[in-house]
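**Backbone shape codes:**
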Amino acid sequence: MGDINRLELPPGAFDLALSIDSIYFSADYAATIRELKAALRPGGRMAVFFSYGREPWVAIEEFPAEKLPPDKTPLADALDANGMVFRSWDLTAQEYRLALRRKEVLAELKPQFEAEHNLFIYENRNGDAEGVSQAIEAGLHARYLYLAASGTP
């Protein structure tokens, strides 16, 4: 556990670097990928779950929709900048189903959140699910699994 912007990983120590929704905390994706790559053994790989899409506070006309394809995302740019080759799998449909299910479950549990005086948690989680589902419906959000390596992934 540590600061993704100040990684202190031993060089060549790992077979796999796995990032599940954590790369977003990096101030510089390319620098973080460079540090993770340096920590991999020869033949090591990176697996990164990554969502990219329009946030509700960003005007539709200001969101760079051309960056949605898996080979154009900010993560893809960072992998390319570090000489990483990658494959990707589109998990957008699964993320959409999850967002819809989260809204259903949250609606069922709302009275419990209220009773516990935790309505802010309900509102936060519901807002997130609503934002993701709306962005996917508008074609302005995607989720991918990337598998990257220095050679062929």
